[in-house]
Amino acid sequence: AFEGLAERLQATFDKMKGRGKVSEADVKEMMREVRLALLEADVNFKVVKKFVNDVKERAVGQEVMKSLTPGQQVIKVVNEELTKLMGEEQSKIALAQKPPTVVMMVGLQGAGKTTTTGKLANFLRKKNNRKPLMAAADIYRPAAIDQLETLGKQLSMPVFSLGDQVNPVDIATGAVNQAKEEHHDYVLIDTAGRLHVDEDLMGELQRIKEAVQPDEILLVVDAMTGQDAVNVAESFNEQLDLTGIVLTKLDGDTRGGAALSVKAVTGTPIKFAGMGEKIDQLEPFHPERMASRILGMGDVLSLIEKAQTNVDEERAKELEKKMRTAELTFDDFLEQLEQVRNMGPLDELLAMIPGANKKALKNVQVDESQIGRVEAIVRSMTSHEKQQPSVINASRKRRIAKGSGTSIQDVNRLLKQFEDMKKMMKQMTNMQGKKKGKGGFQ
Ligand code: GDP
Ligand code: MG
């Protein structure tokens, strides 16, 4: 998403960056371009108007900061205002005082409710160590129940269902009761959608709301629908009093207008963003990071957070200690490989690094098969060999190569790399030792 908008804004700013002085006329000219870029990205026109005025007012009247050029100052203001537009701070999912926290997923057909229900269950378990129960309350769409049950199986997480002959209100109530009995801390209710907002649908959703008193009503909207997403959000909000929005399909080539307007128009915070069809492609929505992304400032924070979810801190400390004493074994090595794997496809991670050029990245084929080969070699070692690689002699190498379907050269290369790595760590450790008291590398 946002490529078009990002490109235009960055081009506009690039023109200003080099200049020592920026006149009021320059600012006006720049804001004219920003305005056009936003409108073209399908941002609501009222939102654009207010945005441009706010920036102009601040940028023109602002005192000059020494560390920034006037061009950078304007970019800073645009960045701050973009952030504000999308909600200022990250807005977290509710947690009820008394469990279970009841979450109702609502939205039009095809917006991504069912998918997001699975993604959210996965997120809550992985990130917050929760035990959610999913509930299948869409009895109309053919195979909607199957779809949720399949997600449940894939995640090994429970799905509450009473088939498609029972009233959705009773299904929702039944799910909440079961969650209480089985001590689930969240209930995620997947509801039915329609092609358009209609009275029937709203009536049913209101009855479910009445019956289960949800702590959170999340509207799932398809970001690809642009302006329509904003209208949909407005009507759902009027009828149901939403507590949050999930924008899906932000991975597609949406022009970004929905993300930039929906909070401003409805006053409802965007809590999550769907970034793909896969189960782990749901991210907490960070207005600040999104703004930086649009303005091309990279997304270091997202990268760090992604790494943190997957690396167990205790283990990381232990590993660090091993590295310091250079006791690293192939068992540790394997574990590290796994953790890198869990972070997701490597090219996706690379794309988040600031300055990483998307077009250039397309030509970089991250060689996942190489990692697979390394893993196979390590797995073909005995535990003695993994702990003490120095025992690996020629006949052991032959056996390992055969067991992993690789060649002796491959095995040699890995052993060499491993030794180099240990050496390098030792050097780093020594350096760190000398730097002690000054905070070392941190
Ligand atoms: P529902 O009718 O609201 O329950 O929508 P579904 O969950 O069945 O999703 C409709 C389609 O959108 C499915 O093909 C999903 O895989 C797809 N989808 C959902 N979220 C995303 C997303 O964040 N990105 C992409 N690319 N596709 C998504
Ligand atoms: Mg569905």
TrEMBL record:
Positions annotated to bind GTP: 107-114, 190-194, 248-251
Pfam families: SRP54 (PF00448), SRP54_N (PF02881), SRP_SPB (PF02978)
Hydrolase among keywords: yes
GO cellular component, one term: signal recognition particle
Its EC number(s): 3.6.5.4
Keyword annotations: Cytoplasm, GTP-binding, Hydrolase, Nucleotide-binding, Ribonucleoprotein, RNA-binding, Signal recognition particle
Molecular function terms, GO-annotated: 7S RNA binding; GTP binding; GTPase activity
Gene Ontology terms describing biological process: SRP-dependent cotranslational protein targeting to membrane
Domain SRP54-type proteins GTP-binding: 269-282
UniProt subunit comment: Part of the signal recognition particle protein translocation system, which is composed of SRP and FtsY.
Domain comment in the entry: Composed of three domains: the N-terminal N domain, which is responsible for interactions with the ribosome, the central G domain, which binds GTP, and the C-terminal M domain, which binds the RNA and the signal sequence of the RNC.
Protein purpose: Involved in targeting and insertion of nascent membrane proteins into the cytoplasmic membrane. Binds to the hydrophobic signal sequence of the ribosome-nascent chain (RNC) as it emerges from the ribosomes. The SRP-RNC complex is then targeted to the cytoplasmic membrane where it interacts with the SRP receptor FtsY. Interaction with FtsY leads to the transfer of the RNC complex to the Sec translocase for insertion into the membrane, the hydrolysis of GTP by both Ffh and FtsY, and the dissociation of the SRP-FtsY complex into the individual components.
NCBIfam families: ffh
Protein name: Signal recognition particle protein
Source species: Alteribacillus iranensis
